Amino acid sequence: MTARRSGSNPPGAAARAPGKRAPVETQLAVLEATAADASSPEAHSRLREALRTAPGLVAARAAKIVREHALEGFDDDLIATFRRLLVDPVKNDPGCLGKLAALEALDFGSHDDETVFLEATRTFQPEPAWGPPVDTASSVRARGVLALARLAHPDLSLVAGGLLADPESPVRQAAAEALAANGDRALAGALALRWKLGDEDPLVTLACMTGLLALAPDHALPRLRDALHGADDGARELAALALGPSTRPEALDTLLAHLDIAPRASERAPTLRALGLQRNDRALSVLLKIVASGTVQDAEAAVAGLAARRFDAGVRERTCAAARENPAAERLEAALASAFPEEPGR
Questions:
Q1: Vertex 257, ends 319 and 217: CA angle to 5°?
Q2: Looking at CB atoms within 10 Å, which of 124, 128, 279, 305 has the fewest?
Q3: Residue 101 and residue 64: Cα distance in Å, rounded?
Q4: Could you tell me where the DSSP H helices lie in 262-311?
Q5: If DSSP codes are grouped into helix, strand and coil, which group holds residue 280?
Q6: What is the pLDDT of residues 256-275, one digit of tens each?
Q7: Mind listing the pLDDT tens digit for each residue in 32-52?
Q8: pLDDT digits (tens, 9 = 90+) for 55-113
Q9: Burial code of 255-277, b = ≥16 C-beta within 10 A, e = fewer?
Q10: Number of other CB atoms surrounding residue 73 within 10 Å
Q11: Which of 210, 260, 262 shows the shortest CA–CA distance to 233?
């Protein structure tokens, strides 16, 4: 037998037989080089090849490059990628990375055919794990329903309503956000029901609260007020978080009314933090006054709330000045340092 001479093959050729696909690491390295000049015809050819034939991890990187560089003309390739990776998915696309990246590229690129997004909302992928199989397609269903909301799909209420009972909480949260994003008051009923039934994931409840406040504020505000004044600490925190970002004057009135009558600092703290999410001078004035003259517990919570506005002009300086007026100013230093960390060069 004649020994093969070292160096007789081109780089990489000895690592695989003719026609055998390059290792995943090599394919990813090629795509990284492609990303440096993503608009060239050669790059487009490599991206299409990866989308059409590569395993999920590599196809995901190709789809991400398409999205990051806003490349046009890849919709058919992305759709083909999604459907190709539905076949023997645990082997070809573990974790659903390729399918999700393809959907994200289509959605961010404003793809307007709902068919692939509807398919996504019906996609499940149980994968082996310690104990029962784990469904790794929850992010795929979530992206699908959010894309349908962007498209104002006529059956959104049916699709998202069903997904409010999905086994995976990120999908339930996305379904609530999709219903709220549609802006149609007629869709508020499903959110009200999901809120009433409760959810093990507080983010799902919060999405229902904020969605109902957006679609049917006259119905949501009394319920949020009851939660804010109720005995359940978790519900109080969520109600405050739902009211905080709202631009409705009634939301701010509700927070301030609770602040006036809440007997314990622990009850006032969520409200004070939520006031920092209110982007208006009235809420800012209330928080600064509490920093200057409130109890240590209230002042610390007010400072924590003002952290949400730390990038607003003058807020850092006004908060620090108010803290210096507080009789317990020294005890507020840690809260100030946490809320307003020193920036490089300051």
A1: 105
A2: 128
A3: 6
A4: 265-275, 281-293, 296-306
A5: coil
A6: 999 999 989 999 999 999 99
A7: 888 888 889 999 999 999 999
A8: 999 999 999 999 999 999 999 999 999 999 999 999 999 999 999 999 999 999 999 99
A9: beebbeebeeeebbbbbbbbbbb
A10: 9
A11: 262
- Which residues in 98-239 belong to E strands, given as ranges? 126-129, 131-135
Q: Which structure tokens are listed for 48? A: 């299409």
Q: What is the pLDDT of residue 346?
A: 54
116 contacts 79 by C-beta, under 8 angstroms = yes
pLDDT of residue 10: 35
Question: 204 near 169, Cβ under 8 Å?
Answer: yes
Closest CA to 297 of 324, 326, 277: 326
31 — pLDDT class (breaks 50, 70, 90): confident
Q: Where are the domains of the chain?
A: 24-126+134-159, 185-196+206-274, 279-341
Q: What is the pLDDT of residue 57?
A: 93
Say whether pLDDT at 15 is over 60. Answer: no
Residue tagged 């005890």 (tokens): 331
| Burial readout 188-223 (b: 16 or more C-beta within 10 A, e: otherwise) | bbbbbebbeeebeebebbbbbbbbbbbbbbebbbeb
**CB contact set of 304 (below 8 Å; sequence gap of 6+):** 269, 272, 273, 276, 335, 338, 339
Rounded to an integer, what distance in angstroms lies between the CA atom of residue 62 and that of residue 60?
Answer: 5
Contact of 312 with 277, CB cutoff 8 Å: no
Q: Which are the contacts of 169, defined by CB distance < 8 A and separation ≥ 6?
A: 199, 200, 201, 203, 204
Identity of the amino acid at 231: A
Total count of residues recorded for the chain: 346
* For residue 12, pLDDT beyond 90: no
Residues 6+ apart with CB under 8 A from 222: none
